[in-house]
Amino acid sequence: MKINVQMPKAIKLGIKIKNENHMIICGLSFLTVIIFITLLGPFIVPNDPLSANMSERLASPSVTYPLGTDHMGRCIFSRLVIGAQATLGITGLVVASVVMIGIPIGLVTGYIGGRIDSVIMRLVDGLLALPEFILAITIAGFLGPSLINLMISIVFVKWIGYTRVVRGIVILERNKDYVSAAKVSGSSNWKIIRRHLLPQIISPVLVLAALDIGKVILIISSLSYLGLGAQPPAPEWGAMLNDGRPYFQTVPELMIYPGLAIFFVVLSFNLIGEGLRDKLDVKRH
Amino acid sequence: MLEINSITKTYDTNPVLKDITLSLNQGESLGIIGESGSGKSTLARLILGLDSIDEGEIIFQGIRVQHKRNSLKKVRRHVQIVFQDPASSLNPKLPVWKSVVEPLENYPDTIPLFLKEVRNNKELMAGMLFNKVGLSQELLERYPHQLSGGQKQRVAIARGISLQPALLICDEPTSSLDVSVQAQVLNLLKELKRDLNMSYIFISHDLAAVQFMCDQIAVLKNGTLLDMFRTEELFSEIRHDYTKKLVGLALKDIL
Ligand SMILES: Nc1ncnc2c1ncn2[C@@H]1O[C@H](COP(=O)(O)OP(=O)(O)O)[C@@H](O)[C@H]1O
Ligand SMILES: [Mg+2]
């Protein structure tokens, strides 16, 4: 009887562990392919992504144009491949900046507490009261349409989440005995933050970042779609969606292809993020 | 060596220590006994400057313990601690040898006699310290979760003695351990005390352990110092009623 009760549990556990690894491997494989194509982009594209050919507008797929052409006769495939550099590059930069800003502020406010902490957290709570997407649009709109302004607005909105998560963990950890022991050992505040607290936040931040990359890509694309990001004729997936909008009824492919590209990138990062979260046993924040 | 002058500590509105006065001479060890919640750990934290004192003062070797960087750094050079629960007093994300040599990193000018030959090599110092507390060198690179409770507490003791402090505070160092290893750890502490010529403040709710380790005993209840005497006077008629009760309970345990 006892065996009967325990067996399913063991099996379930086995499957669960497999699932996490499957998710991560699956996400990583998608991502590898995407990054490979992105890096090789300039060497494999059949056409100049910017050269318009009005006599070949909205052409169907052919040998010269593997996915056909857009409303200005530009090769959709080439624009997708080159556009990946913009979309993924901006995303990478944005997430890196957000992590670099959010982590130190979270560490310091969480550890030191006091006046600095309450001032910054007041600010953060204020910002969090507004939906982040609306906030990003507002700032991007206020700064004016350009890629740099787009990045600034997303960074401005996104660092808050990282600061909150890091601060939360630090507040939990800072009263534990090992931090007291480090103080008694004569370690400076700086050393305690760097050596003892930083390692505690790396896994959660990694998971958060992986899950956030998908969101950031969507925000970039959405803002570009609204005309606030990459400016024509630069190929960027969101901007391509925007370009295809007038033709949605007649030639939906113009929107379907960049849509699918965004979908796959977001999917792979989400698979990695969710997999890591379960594997590293990071609590949801 | 250590003077505690009528200190008071209140958390929120809860008075945890009430007008405690104590002193400890060089080379002597003091046991602090009291039930859970009586303020023993709080007293230890105040001596180390981990919390602020509300009223009164603590003076160690002429230095007042207060929140000024120099004061705390000087005091902690000579006063170290072994916490109750080694599972939480070691950073789970660090290999244990790094925790052990952390004090030596922060006090580069301190050269304990028993580490003289290896003072410029952290790994060798950690190895020496492991030797001193009876741990195998193979455990140096392990993480806390890969060690048993007794082994972890030995690691924490190794860190505690690494600067050869004048005073080592042991806050219930065996109460989170299996009964079978408690005696071993007590014996180790006693041996180290003699070997390194340290004083202890030995906090416990186990009267026998305190008697085994200390020259003087202080009895704490609800933040008040009820009784204070030399260990050999434990059974004297003039002991406080509460002390007599503790003695009675301890004897019952043995019989
Ligand atoms: N950081 C703190 N904040 C609030 N109350 C505390 C804190 N630390 C200890 N206390 C309270 O102080 C009292 C004494 O605690 P403690 O010194 O840990 O006792 P002991 O070590 O003798 O068991 C307890 O009632 C405890 O709840
Ligand atoms: Mg205690």
Notes on the protein architecture:
The complex is a heterodimer of chains A (285) and B (255). Chain A is mostly helical. The longest helix of chain A has 43 residues, at 2-44. In chain A, 75% of the residues lie in helices and 0% in strands. Chain B has 255 residues and is an alpha/beta fold. Helices cover 38% and strands 24% of the residues of chain B. In chain B, 44% of the residues are buried. At the A-B interface, helix 6 and helix 7 of A face helix 2, strand 6 and helix 4 of B. The complex binds adenosine-5'-diphosphate and magnesium ion. Adenosine-5'-diphosphate is lined by residues 11, 16, 34, 36-42 of chain B.
CATH architecture of chain A: Orthogonal Bundle
Q: What is the ordering of alpha helices and beta strands of chain A?
A: HHHHHHHHH
Radius of gyration of chain B: 18 Å
Shape of chain A: elongated
Strand content of chain B: 15-25%
- Mean pLDDT figure of chain B: 92
Could you give the order of the helices and strands of chain B? Answer: EEEHEEHEHHHHEHEHEEH
N-C termini distance of chain A: 40 Å
Helix content estimate of chain B: 25-40%
